């Protein structure tokens, strides 16, 4: 089963749309990472306790839980384009307001709203992008959205390093306000981005959908062709329905997407938010630019690890990549847990190895939920998976400083290894293979049916 969009030639239009959609992930990486640098100056100036620091680190993640759950549903109900820039306006306002904060609760409130706005962008942008991409480029370009996340994280540490060098610890206010510059840039880039033709066709606006495909893909298509693979009218699902995600047809996919995402990002976010504290526990000089540069290096390796994974998901397949990645990610975490007194440079190397191996799950974070669910609940599924993952990330970020203080670095790393092992188990049991499958076919078919179809295609015809 194929569609005009699945088989369309890859053009400059797709590249522009992918770049425009990358704004949300880039801002997420920047906003969540820059606070780790800002805390260096913020903590002594505002006299923050360990609990307050943990709360500030977790606030944006809690906001992402709320934003993903709510705005994914709205995106499926009212459209991708309608909400496409509103979240950037909210991020701009909250970032500017952060410059003037004077107490911990104001910071927490603003970062909570920032998190909601960032999470809104994931279901909006990734579902819109998935519904325009040819099948051969879908995995790579959806996976590249996470590269934008790490680019934002690396940028945050570069900006943080320069700010500390030039302005000292008092530059933390400028760091918290700096995302406004990126928001303004992507608001300009996103102007004129089109609505999803699949969403339009499914919601009774077929003429608009046909015209958009003709204008941007230079192809003639009918509404019936756009809806090929969608559930029949008698089986039509409520748009944006969480109930559909937990129906017998999609329950396993919903649990898989949420749980593997959670097991991957909980250690990751804690590591990036409190990277200087982790490296300090391994003996790297704390309170200096060295721990900031060390955390920036780890962020850069997270980014580098995504590139071979992007190639592998299209050559080897989604399922083997996610399983082997989780299995190998356990090794450096176990090493650090068993040897908590490892020399600081060796500990940094192990953390970099973990970061590199994270590339597999990273590039599948938004690929899998976009591929495994139909148009009517695609954004809802992305939003739900994001929400579940951020619950784990928020808990991990909140507890990490307390764990380092109360249990020490060794047990903390062992707990991270245990959570990664859960991700391995979930992937081994439930990961499906969607490589080379049309978007609507991947969402509609059971994996067993796809396997039978591929086997039948490979069988020689007897004469």
The CATH C-level class name: Mainly Alpha
User: Termini distance?
Assistant: 26 Å
Give the number of domains. 1
Count of alpha and pi helical runs: 23
**Can you write the helix and strand succession as a string?**
HHHHHHHHHHHHHHHHHHHHHHH
CATH domain topology: Growth Hormone, Chain: A
Largest sheet: none
Helix/strand structural class: mainly alpha
Membrane topology: Multi-pass membrane protein
GO molecular function, one term: carbohydrate:proton symporter activity
Keywords: Membrane, Transmembrane, Transmembrane helix
Pfam families: Sugar_tr
Element layout with pairings:
Elements: H1 12-21, H2 23-46, H3 50-78, H4 86-98, H5 104-130, H6 135-167, H7 172-177, H8 179-189, H9 197-202, H10 206-217, H11 223-226, H12 242-245, H13 251-273, H14 275-281, H15 289-315, H16 318-338, H17 344-357, H18 359-364, H19 367-371, H20 378-406, H21 409-430, H22 439-444, H23 447-458
Spell out the key features of this protein.
disordered C terminus, mainly alpha, transmembrane, 0% strand, MFS_sugar_transport-like, MFS_trans_sf, single chain, Growth Hormone, Chain: A, carbohydrate:proton symporter activity
Written account of the structure:
- The chain has one domain: Growth Hormone, Chain: A (Up-down Bundle).
- About 75% of the residues lie in helices and about 0% in strands.
- It is built from 23 helices and no strands.
- The C terminus is likely disordered.
- Its main location: membrane.
- Keywords: Membrane, Transmembrane, Transmembrane helix.
- This is MFS transporter.
């Amino acid at each position: 089963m194929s569609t005009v969009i699945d088989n369309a030639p890859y053009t400059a239009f797709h590249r522009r749309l992918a770049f425009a959609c990358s704004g949300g992930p880039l801002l997420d990486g920047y906003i969540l990472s820059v606070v780790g640098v800002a805390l260096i100056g913020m903590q002594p100036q505002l006299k923050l306790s360990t609990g307050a620091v943990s709360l500030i680190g977790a606030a944006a993640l809690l906001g992402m839980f709320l934003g993903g759950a709510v705005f994914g549903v709205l995106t499926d109900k009212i459209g991708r384009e309608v909400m496409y820039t509103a979240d950037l306006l909210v991020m701009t306002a909250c970032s500017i307001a952060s410059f003037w904060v004077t107490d911990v609760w104001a910071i927490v409130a603003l970062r909570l709203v920032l998190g909601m706005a960032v999470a809104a962008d994931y279901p909006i942008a990734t579902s819109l992008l998935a519904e325009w991409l040819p099948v051969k480029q879908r995995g790579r370009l959806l996976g590249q959205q996470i590269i934008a996340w790490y680019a934002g994280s690396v940028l945050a540490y570069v900006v943080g390093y320069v700010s500390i060098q030039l302005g000292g610890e008092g530059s933390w206010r400028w760091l918290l306000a700096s995302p406004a510059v990126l928001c303004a840039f992507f608001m300009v880039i996103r102007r004129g981005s089109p609505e999803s033709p699949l969403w339009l066709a499914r919601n009774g606006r077929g003429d608009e959908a046909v015209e958009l495909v003709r204008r941007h893909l230079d192809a003639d298509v009918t509404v019936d062709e756009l809806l090929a693979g969608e559930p029949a009218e008698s089986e039509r699902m409520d748009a944006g329905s969480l109930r559909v995600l937990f129906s017998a047809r999609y329950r396993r996919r919903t649990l898989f997407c949420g749980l593997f995402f959670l097991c991957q990002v909980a250690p990751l976010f804690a590591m990036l938010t409190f990277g200087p504290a982790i490296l300090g526990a391994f003996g790297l000089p704390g309170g200096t630019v060295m721990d900031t540069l060390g955390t920036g290096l780890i962020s850069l390796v997270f980014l580098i690890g995504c590139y071979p994974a992007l190639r592998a998901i299209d050559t080897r397949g989604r399922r083997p990549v996610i399983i082997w990645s989780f299995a190998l990610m356990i090794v450096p975490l176990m090493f650090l847990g068993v040897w908590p007194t490892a020399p600081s440079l060796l500990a940094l190397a192990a953390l970099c190895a973990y970061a590199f191996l994270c590339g597999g799950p990273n590039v599948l974070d938004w690929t899998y939920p976009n591929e495994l669910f139909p148009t009517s609940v695609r954004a809802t599924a992305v939003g739900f998976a994001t929400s579940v993952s951020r619950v784990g990330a928020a808990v991990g970020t909140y507890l990490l400083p307390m764990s380092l203080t109360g249990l020490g670095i060794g047990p903390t790393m062992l707990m991270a290894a245990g959570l990664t092992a859960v991700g391995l188990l979930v992937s081994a049991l439930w990961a499906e293979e969607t490589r080379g499958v049309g978007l609507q076919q991947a969402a509609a078919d059971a994996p067993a049916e796809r396997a039978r179809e591929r086997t039948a295609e490979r069988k020689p015809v007897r004469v």
